[in-house]
Amino acid sequence: MTGRTVLITGGAGFIGSRLAADLAADGDDVVLLDVLHPQVHAGGWPALPADITAIPFDVTVPTMWDAVLRSVRPDVVVHLAAETGTGQSLTEASRHTRVNVVGTSELLDGLHRAGHVPDRFVLASSRAVYGEGEWATPDGTRFAAAARDVRQLDRAEWDPSAPGDAGGGPAHPLAHAAATTQPRPSNVYAATKLAQEHVLHAWASAHGTPLSVLRLQNVYGPGQSLTNPYTGIVSLFGRLAREHRSIPVYEDGHITRDFVFVDDVVRALSAATRSTTEGTSTVDIGSGAPMTLLDLAALVAAQAGAPAPQVTGQYRLGDVRAAFADVSAAADALGYVPQVDPEHGIALLLAWMATQDAPTQDVPAQPQPLRVA
Ligand SMILES: NC(=O)c1ccc[n+]([C@@H]2O[C@H](COP(=O)([O-])OP(=O)(O)OC[C@H]3O[C@@H](n4cnc5c(N)ncnc54)[C@H](O)[C@@H]3O)[C@@H](O)[C@H]2O)c1
Question: Does residue 349 form part of some domain?
Answer without folding.
Answer: no
